[in-house]
Amino acid sequence: MLSLSSRKMPLQPTDTKNVGNSDDGFRLTVYRNESAVRVDCWGFWPQEVAESFAQETISSCRSAIPPIHLLVDASNLKPQSEEGQAALRRVLRYLVTAEVATAVVSARNILTRMQLNRIANESGVSSVVAFTDAAPIPWPSSSER
User: Fold this and answer.
1) What would the pLDDT profile of 66-118 be if each residue is shown by its tens digit?
2) What is the DSSP letter of 101?
3) N- or C-end of the chain: fewer Cβ atoms within 10 A?
4) Domains along the chain?
């Protein structure tokens, strides 16, 4: 499982995409050489941001060479409406069929974490995804995974 402890060397992102605005959105960072995808999420997503989250995250994971490493930093994500929950559910359901080395979701807000845990249980990925309330650091080196 992915360690969220200190790292020896930072990974170099190959693609970064921001969707939404400073209040509600996400940033997707892909580390192609490490088959790693990091998604930083914040705010309360309107429908178009939620849909983009699902599409962009799944597309990025599919483009990585398996097994993939996925980190979702939901530390600043608020509990979501049905549209946001549906987008999160789509990503988690994708993980059931993907070849995943590690999948970690960090959520400090207890309500957000409870919502994400419920969605993971409903999606059948609770054994695939690790949840934490610790603030994630940037990816550790591959020797620490």
Assistant:
1) 999 999 999 999 999 999 999 999 999 999 999 999 999 999 999 999 999 99
2) E
3) N
4) 15-139 (3.30.750.24)
> Tokens 């609770």 appear where?
126
* Three-class DSSP category at 5: coil
Is 87:119 a contact under the CB 8 Å cutoff?
no
Specify the pTM.
0.84
Question: Going edge to edge, which strands form the sheet with 36-43?
Answer: 15-20, 25-31, 36-43, 68-77, 100-106, 130-132
Tell me the two tokens of residue 58: 């799944």
- Token readout for 6 is 């200190």
SS3 74: strand
* Residue 107: exposure state from Cβ atoms within 10 A (0-12, 13-18, ≥19): buried
Rounded Cα gap, residues 145 and 134, in angstroms: 17
Q: Alpha carbon 142 to chain centroid distance?
A: 18
Residue 126 pLDDT grade (very low, low, confident, very high; cuts 50, 70, 90): confident
Residue 140 to residue 110: CA distance in whole angstroms: 25
List of E strands, 44-129: 68-77, 100-106
